[in-house]
Amino acid sequence: MTKITITAEAAEKNFNSLAALLISTAASDKARAFAEKIIAQVRARGAQWMADNAVAMQILDAADGRFCPVADNRNYYMAKLQTALAA
Predict the structure, then answer these.
(1) What is the C-alpha to C-alpha distance for residues 13 and 67, in angstroms, rounded to an integer?
(2) pTM of the model
(3) Which one of 12, 13, 30, 43 is at 20 to 30 Å from 50 when CA atoms are compared?
(4) Residues 68, 7, 51, CA angle at the centre, nearest 5°?
């Protein structure tokens, strides 16, 4: 099995693009606050952790250039972040 790797710098950049979209597309203040909480937990683990968990969090590429917009798949991406944090 081939392991997919990404640099810590690229993972952090890609995560930040996802985080910005999750916050900006939140449907309510409550949804925005929840996203900010989860995003802060990921950031607290650092860029190398993001790189090690890039596949699980779906941050191998920048979120603003994805075929499936984050705004249309918010629940999917929030679940991916939470699952990576729980592992």
Answers:
(1) 18
(2) 0.90
(3) 30
(4) 65
